[in-house]
UniProtKB/TrEMBL annotation:
Biased composition (Polar residues): 114-134
Domain of life: Bacteria
Keywords assigned: Coiled coil, Membrane, Methylation, Transmembrane, Transmembrane helix
Coiled-coil stretches noted in the UniProt entry, renumbered to this chain: 37-64
Entry's transmembrane regions: 12-39
Name of the protein: Prepilin-type N-terminal cleavage/methylation domain-containing protein
The organism of origin for this protein: Duganella radicis
GO terms for cellular component: type II protein secretion system complex
Segments for region (Disordered): 113-144
GO annotation terms (biological process): protein secretion by the type II secretion system
Length: 162
């Protein structure tokens, strides 16, 4: 045995390498769906947060209009004409110096929107006060927002209905 190479110095056999590759393949086939599920769950959490933020801003605008802090023409709903109004602000009708009321710092982008060149407000579906919940349509104001993503969430509820 003096002339031959000892077993410990010979390295890995082809069988050992194949077993290692098979084990790594099995582990990765289990890990990839979990990563995909985690990414979807994160997007859904962001969607919930963004919808809540937008809806709270719309409600705050309506409340300010009902309190007489925003000038509303006769026949208007009291909701903003666009999402951009929430960021640009409106003049406080009760302020003697013309202060502005702001409702959002920025309009969040729908986390499922893939086109990053469109403005964030265009990534949301908008429902006017005059439209129904079953058939939301844009109109003279923004009463509610919803995701334009056609799929269903992990809870099997379509994203449009969140």
């Amino acid at each position: 045995m003096a002339r031959g190479v000892s077993r410990s110095a010979a390295g890995f056999t082809i069988v050992e390498l194949l077993v290692t590759v098979v084990i790594v393949g099995i582990l990765s086939s289990v890990a990839f769906p979990m990563v995909e599920l985690t990414l979807q769950r994160n997007k859904e959490q962001e969607l919930r947060r963004d919808l809540l933020e937008l809806r709270e801003a719309l409600d705050a605008y309506k409340k300010a209009a009902d309190q007489g802090r925003i000038a509303v023409a006769a026949g208007e709903s009291g909701y903003p004409r666009s999402l951009e109004v929430l960021v640009d602000g409106v003049i406080d009708a009760r302020s003697p110096v013309g202060d502005r009321i702001y409702f959002l710092r920025r309009i969040p982008r729908d986390p499922f929107a893939t086109d990053t060149t469109t403005p964030p407000s265009s990534t949301w579906g908008k429902r006017s006060y005059a439209s129904t919940a079953e058939n939301p349509k844009e109109g003279n104001d923004v009463y509610d927002v919803y995701s334009l993503e056609p799929g269903n969430g992990l809870n099997d509820v379509p994203y449009r209905q969140w």
